[in-house]
Amino acid sequence: MTTIDIPADLNSEDETGMVWTFLDEAEDPSIIRPGEVVVAGSPLTPAVCEVVDLVDKAVGTVVHLRVLPGTIDQYRRLLARVGGY
Hints:
By secondary structure, the chain is mainly beta. 14% of the residues lie in helices and 36% in strands. The two termini are 16 Å apart.
């Protein structure tokens, strides 16, 4: 099973056109920073995403995510080829 860094509804976009979620839902909020690559979604539908930005709002900090192409398994195979992971 894939560990999710931050839960998100990958079909939910806001006015920016990006997937969004709240920072306080992250397993470890310290890794959710602009430019980082994380696993988002749910255990059944995980995706590799880039953290685009964090926006402070009255209801909490919103995280905008860009879903990257490919599957988790494709990224695992890439890491195995280049780094022996």
